[in-house]
Amino acid sequence: MAKKSGVNVTAAYTAEAVPLVARDAAADRDEPGGNVASAVAVRHLSKSFGPIAALKDVSLDIGSGEIRGICGENGAGKSTLVKILTGVYRPDAGNVLIGGAAVSVATPRQAQELGIAIVAQELSLCPDLSVEDNIWLGSLHVPFLHKRPDLRRRAAEALALLGAGHIDLDTPVTNLSMGERQLVEIARLLTRDARVLILDEPTATLTDIEIERIFAALLAVKREGRSVVYITHRLAEVYAICDRVSVLRNGELVTTTSLKGLDRSALIELMLGRPSDEMYPEEARARGAPALVVEGMSLPGIVNDFSMKVHRGEILCIAGQVGSGAAEIVAALAGLVHDAGGRVTVNGRPLKLGSSVRAAQRGIMFVSGDRAAEGVFRRLSVLQNLVATRLRDHSLLGFLRGGALRKAAAHLAARVGIDRRRLNARAEELSGGNQQKLAFGRSIERQAGAILLMNEPTRGIDVGARAEIYRLMRGFCEDGYALVMASSDLEEIVGVGDVVITLYRGRRIGHYRRSEVSMHRIVADITHPRETTP
Amino acid sequence: MTDQVLPTALRYPWRVPLPHSRRGRTLVAIRVAALLALIAIAAATPGFFTAVSLFSLLNTTSFIGCVAVGMTFITLSGNIMSFALSVTLSTSGIVFMAVLPWGLPIAFLVALAFGAGLTGIQGVAVGYFRANPVIVSMAALALITGGATLITQGQGVYPQGDAAAALKGRLLGIPMPLAAFILTVVLAQIVLSFTRFGRQLYMVGSNWRAALAAGLDPARIVLGAYIVAGLCTALAGILMAARYSSGDLELGLGYDYSAISAVLVGGTAISGGEGSAIRSLVGAFLIAVCQVLLLLHGFSTQIQYLAIGVIVLFVIMLQTLADAD
Amino acid sequence: MLALVANRSVRPYLLLVIIAVALWIFDRGRGQFFTTATAFSVLQQFATIGPIALGLGLSMIIREFDLSVGGMLSLSGCIAVLTGAHYPALGVALAVLCGLVWGAFQGTMMVWLRLGSIGVTLGGLLTLGGLAYVVTGNLSISYPRMDVALAVNNPVLHVFSLRSLVALAAFLAAAFFMARTRAGRDVYATGSDRRAAMVAGVRTAAILPAVFACSGMLAALGGALLSYSLAAASGVALTDALVPATASAIIGGVSLTGGKGTPIGIVGGVLVLCLLSAGLNAIGTPPAVQDVVTGGVLLAVAIADAVDLDPRLFAMRRYWAEMFVRPAESVRSADTSAAE
Question: I want to staple A158 with a disulfide (CB 3.0 to 4.6 A). Which of A187, B151, B265, C126 is the partner?
Answer without folding.
Answer: A187
